[in-house]
Amino acid sequence: MSVLTREGFHALTAQAKRDLQRSTDSVNVMVCAGTGCIAGGAMKVYEYLKSACERRGIPVAVSLRQEAGAKGIHLKKSGCHGFCEIGPLVNIEPLDVLYAHVHTEDCDEIIDKTILGGEVIERLLYEQNGVRYQHRDDIPFYKNQQRLILKNSGKTDAEDLEEYLALGGYQALEKALFEMTDTQICAEITDSGLRGRGGGGFPAGRKWESVRRNVSDVKYIVCNGDEGDPGAFMDQGVMEGNPHSVIEGMMIAGAATGGTEGYIYVRAEYPLAVKRLQTAIDKAAEAGLLGDNIMGTDFCFHIHINRGAGAFVCGEGSALTASIEGKRGMPRVKPPRTVDQGLWGKPTVLNNVETFSNVPGIIMNGAAWYRTIGTEGSAGTKTFALTGNVVNTGLVEVPMGTTLRKVIFDIGGGIPDGKRFKAVQIGGPSGGCLTEEHLDMPMDFDSLKKAGAIIGSGGLVVMDEDTCMVDVARFFMHFTQKESCGKCTPCREGTKRMLEILERIVENEGSMEDLDMLESLSDTITDTALCGLGQTACKPVMSTLKNFRQDYLNHVVDHHCPICNGRKRRLEIKSELCKGCGKCARNCPMEAISGQPRMPYVIDNEKCIHCGACAKVCKMHVDPVKNANDPECIRCGKCKQVCPVHAIK
Question: What pTM was computed for the model?
Answer without folding.
Answer: 0.86
